[in-house]
Design goal:
Helices cover 72% and strands 4% of the residues. The chain has 679 residues and is mainly alpha-helical. Helix 8 runs antiparallel to helix 9 and helix 9 crosses helix 11. Pfam families: CRAL_TRIO_2, Spectrin_SESTD1. Keywords: Repeat.
Amino acid sequence: TGGKDRRSGLILTIPLCLEQTSMDELSVTLDYLLSIPSEKCKARGFTVIVDGRKSQWNVVKTVVLMLQNVVPAEVSLVCVVKPDEFWDKKVTHFCFWKEKDRLGFEVILVSANKLTRYIEPCQLTEDFGGTLTYDHMDWLNKRLVFEKFTKESTSLLDELALINNGSDKGTQQERERSIDLNFLPSVDPETVLQTGHELLSELQQRRFNGSDGGVSWSPMDDELLAQPQVMKLLDSLREQYTRYQEVCRQRSKRTQLEEIQQKVMQVVNWLEGPGSEQLRTQWGIGDSIRASQALQQKHEEIESQHSEWFAVYVELNQQIAALLNAGDEEDLVELKALQQQLSDVCYRQASQLEFRQNLLQAALEFHSVAQDLSQQLDGLLGMLCVDVAPADGASIQQTLKLLEEKLKSVDLGLQGLREKGQSLLDQISNQASWAYGKDVTIENKENVDHIQGVMEDMQLRKQRCEDMVDVRRLKMLQMVQLFKCEEDAAQAVEWLSELLDALLKTHIRLGDDAQETKVLLEKHRKFVDVAQSTYDYGRQLLQATVVLCQSLRCTSRSSGDTLPRLNRVWKQFTVTSEERVHRLETAVAFHSTAEKILQECPEQPDAFNEMEQFDEIEAVGKSLLDRLTVPVVYPDGSEQYFGSPSDMASAAEHIREKMKLVSLKKQQLKQPEATTPES
């Protein structure tokens, strides 16, 4: 445990248990434990504690007697820890103190709590009431590590010495044979060295830092003895391992150089042989996207095969560079020549692969653009082949805009096709630079003819579509004009209807005097002129639709209905306008005559030679009042009144007032005639 007696001798503890104790195993264990301390430590003697608290008296006695044969010279004191009061009678039959001379050491029976009379408490473990910290499993694990390290390092030292010594003597062939036979040690030197360093670090750490818990731990003599052994073995291992590494390096260098030479020739022979032959057979670009993709897939397979050899090239180049940095002078020339030869062949082959890949990619892009352009032309042609039957002018405008956009897209696509085609032709013209002396004129001519043929075909298709677009554009513009005329004609009908409605609802006043009525009559004539212009405009638009329909060879959907509507509204307006004119003219005659009569002086009776004028005014007034109550009758038999009944009543009331004034004037004129005979 690391505990010591008062003479600085080590304390050996033998814990016995209830199970059967094998004396042979115990003897072997004691021999092993007593072999650990140094001779100097053994000379100070041992104090043996036999813990018999859990064992039988016969076993304890046998163990004590066995110590005589195992360690008689080293044992100075044996303390038998007894159980309480169980052995008293049996001890009387055998007293160890009487056998001291025969045993060679003193034996005492003592209770666990009285063991401190012979040994200090700080040197006893907790099992015996002491304070010494001890972990038996930790001690055992470290002993196992130490012994494993000692065994492995000793064996490894012998193997390394045999390998190193075999490489230092004899001819080169003998050295190589020796190295071949003993080239790999039975254990990994790095692992053994790491184990030794970890073990040494653990021993040193426990020596100087103490145990866990802060209690100072006295290092065992076996550990003090183990440290120099571990250090010595580590030094020897490092020395032999360094020599072994140098031997391996030299051998690896020679082997590596031979392997590099062999691999370089393999790479060069394959690239200049099968690799070059694969590229010689690949010259086409395909006539479609699928064909180009198939050629690309084939090229990727070729590249994949080359990639394996290029990977070998990269590895070889790195190995050669490493050897050039650390190699001997006699190897430099050969290594540089190998490196130059390998680089030239690989770079040339890589350039050819890249050129072929770029060519196939350009061909794929060309065919892709050609296919897109072909689809655009098909879509444009399909759009042109469908008859135009839009619902209104806005949809025609939208269709026309879409047509122009498609045509512009076709122009851009054709321009892109020309650019891709020219770029592809330029690359094909440079194909002879890597043809390995093979005449590729015929193959290139086929590719060139195909590219030019595709571009010419697309140009012709595009030109045909442009011609059809021009015709369709003209037709659609005419249709736009047709719809515009129809819409404007319908609008003219609406305007004329609004004028008629305004005439009926707002043009109802007849004027308060002749002057105002004449102004209303003049305004009405202008109003009629506007309506006439609207009607003429609608007629012209409808005539234009007829001409456009004949040009487009189609039947207008709305002009057949619009013309009768226009004529019907115009007839209604004409009838209404004539009625309005008649009323205004009657009102002018009425107001003029009435005003003339009302303005004449009574002293001028000669102005009224005939009383018929009064009767005429009354007749005109009554006629005008009658017209105000009569509706306007249209040709279709329908009727319509001017304004509302209240409006008409107001106009009639004004006429009646003026008729009353005229009647009053008439009476005034009659009175002088009645008084003259009497006088």
